[in-house]
């Protein structure tokens, strides 16, 4: 297929950016299936020099007269010990009897879930984290996604130093891709599709490239968001013009393509494990994944398994929290060794200005992404019934004869349906009165459409009813900076608690994820307009898929300043310094309700890069702490061996109370409870310091911190404290945090005495499921 193909059917962005749960399909008839086989590495028989030889010999020794030999897919060395293969039931039974075999799990399937963001995040060329981190110089960010469009200007390597010797990655050749597509910015690109192909998906015959080249545009977008080079004069059909730049513009990108464009399945667990295995072997410093698998236990889910191994090697792993919000318990990728990222809005909006009649009513703006610089002048306005109590623009309510050449006004209703009706009717365009709960994607604006607030909708309505003739002027393609309030937590952003381990608050943090401008694959139509599609080098998209690469970019900057910090220390710094106020100095709002967001929406808050560089103290977590946490989950010894990849793992102090920078109390069928937490803080600032605990707790939450003063000798000195939290729901002003969720929350902040550092953690209580 040709990469220049421009007018292909448009994929629904809406469905594409939702993160979904896919149930592993079962097959009638074909009994061969892909499996992930976990082995006890230490049981390798003496004659074998390598594990590869051992596994190959196992596979060749099992037989099934009906189907021949098993097919080997991948051998895994880092994310787990073992391999994946396609086996018949009889082959599986034979394999399970072999010495060294621990467990076998069937393949699972998963799916995916700027210019302006650096400035919104306060990143500045001259002060703060950007110059301190030398813009992320030499950090290597591994992105597991849909591939990359290497010709994008965001991956030009002007001014970058030679690739460091420690890098072991490669630029793999394949369809429309070869080694000359890599450079000093894009230093590695690989593709993993064996698992999907085993499902009978012929990647060369569907709309994708069997190579690291991106068909969707999604991986190009996430990579350039995290580490794109500056591109001047980037824009999206005239909106958001400016210099597009990644969060860590001097960091390097390695793409591991593990998501493909198929009708139903996008990603196979065998392929994702292989991608993460290779990323670890190649030497990435950080990883970002904007996709999710079913929420199986930690020893089955490929992302939690791979992230555990990455964490052990000091690799920071950031993942999207999913787009199933705003209900409670919708978090994905919530393992405590993953940094789980929700999505917030920015202070940039896309608008059209509306002037009614002769302008005696002050002109106002509404949201629009219509991609043409159109000026509609003195055009008649049409309002269905002229009766405010009837919802207008419902199916088949507009008569083409009435609306020809007119702008239709649609009162509050289902905008998606109303848009279809306006389009069907053949009207010139439309103004929709709507609230922010109806989230409109850019590609919905395929006609001259403007979405105005309910208040402004009333003005339009009153004007039309009072005026004859009623006319309107509309000017499209306005970009509004400094819109307020911002940020807000996006309505689609997944909310805590996390089903698998509710005692760890998730998400950890939010980062920009709404209408993000970044590089896109210009291989096909993107924005519908009339019956046509426009192609773009830069896409404007939304999702927690976009917030994870923002966060990993910030983590790369922090890591560049503090190369000795563990992933948990970096996350602690990001969480405890996050901000809780928006640009009106009010609390960050939840877009789905218009009321204050809570830690179940945003974890520690909204990422605040310059502060994260210097948090004062961190809550660190070591590998053994995570092992003890998993011990506390009462996994069997085999399950423990799989996750830790150790046959001699030890549970030194099994406990679900990790040294986490947040506190969560789950109420199980009770209205009052007491919980205890133990924490250790590490001083990461220079010199001695003293900190004092300050608790903010609502009625019904009693918090006691002992001791409430901590003295640190100097850098890297550590001090512990105990905290007890008593909840009495009968006494509390319960916050209805979500329609389906009740709880309350407070904060513990450690204030440096005579210093500037404040180390803040949320304390949340919530009813269990
Ligand atoms: C890679 O592809 C480009 C364009 O298709 C071609 O010009 C170049 O010679 C190829 N390089 C290698 C190393 O094959
Ligand atoms: C898959 O692709 C190969 C090579 O491109 C082709 O020979 C084969 O016929 C295709 N198979 C199917 C089922 O489409
Ligand atoms: C504008 O139109 C309104 C009615 O729609 C009318 O009352 C007003 O006098 C007009 N103003 C001008 C300056 O023509
Ligand atoms: C508006 O519509 C409602 C509901 O159909 C009806 O009861 C009412 O009489 C209408 N008002 C006018 C002014 O036509
Ligand atoms: C309008 O049409 C849409 C799609 O064609 C359909 O799903 C919806 O139920 C219809 N609504 C009404 C009120 O008939
Ligand atoms: C609008 O209606 C469509 C189906 O007609 C439905 O899928 C969608 O969820 C509705 N949107 C809202 C905001 O209710
Ligand atoms: C808009 O109407 C045109 C003409 O009827 C049709 O071809 C097109 O599919 C419609 N667009 C959408 C998004 O429904
Ligand atoms: C693990 O087992 C212990 C002892 O039986 C029990 O007290 C604890 O609640 C269990 N923990 C979980 C997470 O199931
Ligand atoms: C387990 O054994 C490996 C090598 O056999 C050793 O490197 C490791 O330190 C041991 N781990 C523990 C927790 O004893
Ligand atoms: C409630 O149940 C969860 C999950 O089983 C457990 O982790 C937590 O400790 C329990 N909370 C209380 C207060 O008992
Ligand atoms: C908890 O409080 C709610 C509301 O006051 C009450 O309906 C419920 O019965 C109480 N549950 C328990 C276990 O006491």
TrEMBL record:
<dbReference type="InterPro" id="IPR037045">
    <property type="entry name" value="S8pro/Inhibitor_I9_sf"/>
</dbReference>
<feature type="active site" description="Charge relay system">
    <location>
        <position position="218"/>
    </location>
</feature>
<feature type="domain" description="Inhibitor I9">
    <location>
        <begin position="34"/>
        <end position="113"/>
    </location>
</feature>
<dbReference type="Pfam" id="PF05922">
    <property type="entry name" value="Inhibitor_I9"/>
</dbReference>
<dbReference type="GO" id="GO:0004252">
    <property type="term" value="F:serine-type endopeptidase activity"/>
</dbReference>
<keyword id="KW-0720">Serine protease</keyword>
<dbReference type="InterPro" id="IPR010259">
    <property type="entry name" value="S8pro/Inhibitor_I9"/>
</dbReference>
<feature type="active site" description="Charge relay system">
    <location>
        <position position="145"/>
    </location>
</feature>
<feature type="domain" description="Peptidase S8/S53">
    <location>
        <begin position="136"/>
        <end position="583"/>
    </location>
</feature>
<keyword id="KW-0964">Secreted</keyword>
<keyword id="KW-0645">Protease</keyword>
<dbReference type="InterPro" id="IPR003137">
    <property type="entry name" value="PA_domain"/>
</dbReference>
<dbReference type="InterPro" id="IPR015500">
    <property type="entry name" value="Peptidase_S8_subtilisin-rel"/>
</dbReference>
<comment type="similarity">
    <text>Belongs to the peptidase S8 family.</text>
</comment>
<dbReference type="InterPro" id="IPR000209">
    <property type="entry name" value="Peptidase_S8/S53_dom"/>
</dbReference>
<feature type="active site" description="Charge relay system">
    <location>
        <position position="545"/>
    </location>
</feature>
<dbReference type="InterPro" id="IPR045051">
    <property type="entry name" value="SBT"/>
</dbReference>
<feature type="domain" description="Subtilisin-like protease fibronectin type-III">
    <location>
        <begin position="657"/>
        <end position="764"/>
    </location>
</feature>
<keyword id="KW-0325">Glycoprotein</keyword>
<dbReference type="InterPro" id="IPR034197">
    <property type="entry name" value="Peptidases_S8_3"/>
</dbReference>
<keyword id="KW-0378">Hydrolase</keyword>
<dbReference type="Pfam" id="PF02225">
    <property type="entry name" value="PA"/>
</dbReference>
<dbReference type="Pfam" id="PF17766">
    <property type="entry name" value="fn3_6"/>
</dbReference>
<feature type="domain" description="PA">
    <location>
        <begin position="391"/>
        <end position="459"/>
    </location>
</feature>
<feature type="signal peptide">
    <location>
        <begin position="1"/>
        <end position="28"/>
    </location>
</feature>
<dbReference type="Pfam" id="PF00082">
    <property type="entry name" value="Peptidase_S8"/>
</dbReference>
<dbReference type="InterPro" id="IPR036852">
    <property type="entry name" value="Peptidase_S8/S53_dom_sf"/>
</dbReference>
<protein>
    <submittedName>
        <fullName>Subtilisin-like protein protease SBT1.7</fullName>
    </submittedName>
</protein>
<keyword id="KW-0732">Signal</keyword>
<dbReference type="GO" id="GO:0005576">
    <property type="term" value="C:extracellular region"/>
</dbReference>
<dbReference type="GO" id="GO:0006508">
    <property type="term" value="P:proteolysis"/>
</dbReference>
<dbReference type="InterPro" id="IPR041469">
    <property type="entry name" value="Subtilisin-like_FN3"/>
</dbReference>
